[in-house]
Write a structure and sequence with these properties.
By secondary structure, this protein is an alpha/beta fold. The protein folds into 2 domains: about 200 residues, Alanine racemase (TIM Barrel, Alpha-Beta Barrel), CATH 3.20.20.10; about 130 residues, Lyase, Ornithine Decarboxylase, Chain A, domain 1. Helix content is about 25%, strand content about 20%. β9, α8 and β10 form a beta-alpha-beta unit. α3 crosses α4. The radius of gyration is 23 Å and the shape is elongated. Pathway: Amino-acid biosynthesis; D-alanine biosynthesis; D-alanine from L-alanine: step 1/1.
Amino acid sequence: MSDFPTPATDRPEHCENALLTVDLSALRQNWRLLADFSNGAECSGMLKANAYGLGLEPVMRALLAEGCRTFFVATAAEGERARAVSETAAIYVLEGLPPDCGELIARARLIPVLGSLEEIAEWAPSGLDAAVQLDTGMNRMGLPLEQTLGAASAIRPRLVMSHFVTSQTPNDPLNERQIAALAAARAAFPGIPASLCNSSGIFLPHKPLLELTRPGYALFGGNPTPRGPNPMKPVVRLRARILATRDIAAGETVGYDATWTATRPTKLATVGVGYADGVPVGASTAPGKPPAEALVGGRRCPLVGRVSMDFIVLDVTEAPPGAARRGEWVELLGDEIGVDELATRSRTIGYEILTRLGPRYARRYV
């Protein structure tokens, strides 16, 4: 009934209602492609948010095996997990130096990304490695450009970096302004490597690759060129089991608040995932948007009604004979339905789809 090997769990497969498969081979191929596009710049790996929801430790081990040696995490706690995987990797902490966390960061040999003169003043006396983040337009984190000289007089960082605002829009003039701003500001740090490119930045025609690139979303199969074909391989496959089926007449409704009404005799399949598992409420049926879909026996079938905590309901009237039975698997994410498509049909972004993949899934790494 299923082509999944037994998941890595104490429960037998027939007791699992959803299986999330992470293709580490595809992940490694994606990193290699991004490294090739980095054109001589070092290509790092982004591990924040538990490696975009896919598991920091297995993802980091796979990237290390492919040759990645520099990683970025969001928090010091993530940095400790990463350090437990590798004694020698360079691990940068994007949230910088939280108050009273200097000892922890030093003990784990993490590299804080400093974004204020206060942080620099606190860390500089340690003499330990740090990065300096400059704000070239994001207005979120980073040192205002007018403070660059003050920072340079206090610390000699290991890396100078900034972050693109609109790299998914190649022709946006803000990209050029940020590239120029970082080029001018890094003059205060002669001989220090610099980094600007996220996943989409690597594919900009400007080629602002500098010495280090920092891909994240594209590593995990997201499209870094959303106005064109996706050059990345899908990494995530999500299947869930049909728990029940029923036939309803035209005029009957489905789910909370009766948001969907059948216009014909309809066969329904209830599937054992919901918003507690990371299926967005935005995937619910709504006027004026294409429905989210799942593959049932290879046929696309629309989600109907509202996503609830533990369930979604599919209209499987057009599914192949025998494919929509209790116990059969449907595919929500995979080669045909990627994270970007599910995100678009859920009125969100693929980053949210990945990072909210729920803990109830049985997870397999292949």
